[in-house]
Amino acid sequence: MNITEFRQAIKPWMLPIAMLMGIIFHDSIHYLAFLSPYLIFTMLLLTFCKINPKEFHIGRFIWILLAIQIIGAVAVYIAIAPASTDIAQGTFICIFCPTATAAPVITGMLGGSVTMLATYSLISNISVAMLAPVLFSFIGYNSDISFMDSTLLISQRVLPLILAPLALALLFRAYMPRVHAAIASRQSLSFYLWACALIIVVGNAVSFIIHEPASRVPEMIIIAAASLAVCVLQFAIGRIVGRRYGDRISGAQGLGQKNTVLAIWMSLTYLDPISSVGPAAYVAWQNIINSLQLYLRNRNDKIGIKRNA
């Protein structure tokens, strides 16, 4: 087996391996936590360099997905809050959380529209940055932080991470075409960078859960189960909506793959800290689904190659 064959064979298992490594080495992961934004920045730069700006289009498909994300999150919170605000918050954040900044990477590997997903990721993150302070003021806002400060805190963490690599990709395209072409041709690196970022995120999530008191374990289990339910639903609803617009993969990844790093931070900052179990569990659920999709995609590609041979 040569290197190329080995990479193809191991690719479907990279995400589960990354999650397992995060669990095993969770005690030491905090030393690497500072690398997360740099990994995401690099992944986005690779992805955006592949995109033609002329293909950017904010159409009805994107607005429908955004409406499902925002209105769905509020509706679920209202439905669950009478029974338990903590569970409601943990479920809410798993829906309200914006699309993962690395979602275009997985979308491209699955055969979806990278341009569409990159556009939706940008719109989704900006919308959350603008709406989060208002919504958090009703469901669990930290009174020690002013409205303006909260807006700036969220915006400072979200917008530069997305807009800076996009601006850099556009500058490279306009003024350094050779550099742009070199970066655009290295798309396979995004997947392995995402696996590294996943190790860090999972490790941090496991460390938090382990340090929670045993009395809250039943509540954490319920939040994790609710997280699984909304994860499956979002992938399914996104696929259904995407089918209407000829792109099931982008629809599913747009709604289903979440920026869990941001979600965990928002939970710990603005909501009851126990609600962070929702996005922490979501890390596992969404990557199990992504791993299964990548496995099936890889298997189908191999079958297609054999048939055409």
Automatic annotation (TrEMBL):
Keyword check for Protein biosynthesis: no
This protein's name: Transporter
Residue ranges crossing the lipid bilayer per the database entry: 31-49, 61-81, 87-110, 117-138, 158-176, 188-209, 221-241
Keyword annotations from UniProtKB, A to Z: Membrane, Transmembrane, Transmembrane helix
Keyword Transmembrane assigned: yes
Superkingdom of the source species: Bacteria
Organism from which the protein derives: Muribaculum intestinale
Gene3D superfamilies: 1.20.1530.20
